[in-house]
Specification:
With 223 residues, the chain is of the alpha/beta class. The protein has two domains: 92 residues, Rossmann fold (3-Layer(aba) Sandwich), CATH 3.40.50.20; 106 residues, 3 Solenoid (UDP N-Acetylglucosamine Acyltransferase, domain 1). Helices cover 15% and strands 25% of the residues. The mean pLDDT is 94.
């Protein structure tokens, strides 16, 4: 069993802590965050240690890190913590949930996290410190660069290139062979059919309320 420390103590850490509590490969010791966030986490059962005090509490020889930080500031916060912990001598663990399906033979990037139900097809490459949430599909020959966040249910089709620090929202779809530039935001439910420029934002049109009540709609349209 490997001792691990979560980098982060908010919602992502809470979810990962639930998964790892049932994963016999790991034992979670504590979480670590910047000093000002020690008392603002969401994991009451998990001790949080300020990063300035971490080496004294748990040295790099005693535990590895699992990245449990969200996508704030286009993953820059996550990226910064990754590199700071590396510079302190900590190894960053690549965590793959037992219910994820990994079929690429190319090693996933250091510090990446892959959650239940995700499918990573042959010849896919995933960069360092990237989050692949549950039920995501990353199809054959695609490349997801470093510091990305691919949210639940997203589909990245074959031979797609997703640039660094990009956020792909829930149930978004990127069609075959496209390039998504770095630092992009692909909103939930968006369908991307053209290459996207770096730092661009692509949102799906929100569902609009129609004038019928649900009861009238069911009556007239047979739902």
């Amino acid at each position: 069993m490997k001792n691990v420390i979560f980098a982060g103590n908010a919602v992502t850490a809470e979810i990962l802590n639930s998964y790892l509590s049932r994963d016999e490969r790991y034992h979670v010791i504590c979480a670590t965050v910047d000093d000002q966030f020690v008392d603002s986490g969401h994991c009451p059962d998990l001790k949080t240690v300020a990063i300035s005090r971490l080496p004294a509490k748990c040295s790099p020889s005693e535990a590895t890190i699992i990245m449990a930080i969200g996508y704030h500031d286009l993953n820059r916060t996550r990226e910064s913590m990754f590199h700071r912990l590396k510079s302190m001598g900590y190894q960053i663990e690549t965590y793959i949930h037992p219910d994820a399906k990994i079929h690429t033979t190319i090693p996933l990037g250091e510090g990446s996290v892959v959650l239940p139900g995700a499918l990573v097809e042959p010849e896919v490459t995933v960069g360092t410190n990237t989050m692949i949430w549950g039920n995501v599909t990353v199809a054959h020959h695609s490349h997801v660069a470093e510091n990305c966040w691919i949210a639940s249910g997203a589909v990245i089709s074959g031979k797609v290139h997703v640039g660094r620090n990009t956020f792909v929202g829930v149930n978004a779809t990127i069609t075959n062979g496209l390039t998504v530039g770095e630092y992009c935001v692909i909103g939930g439910g968006a369908l991307i059919t053209k290459n996207s420029k770096p730092s661009s934002v692509h949102l799906a049109r929100s569902a609009e309320q129609i004038r019928y009540s649900s009861q009238d709609y069911a009556k007239y349209f047979g739902v």
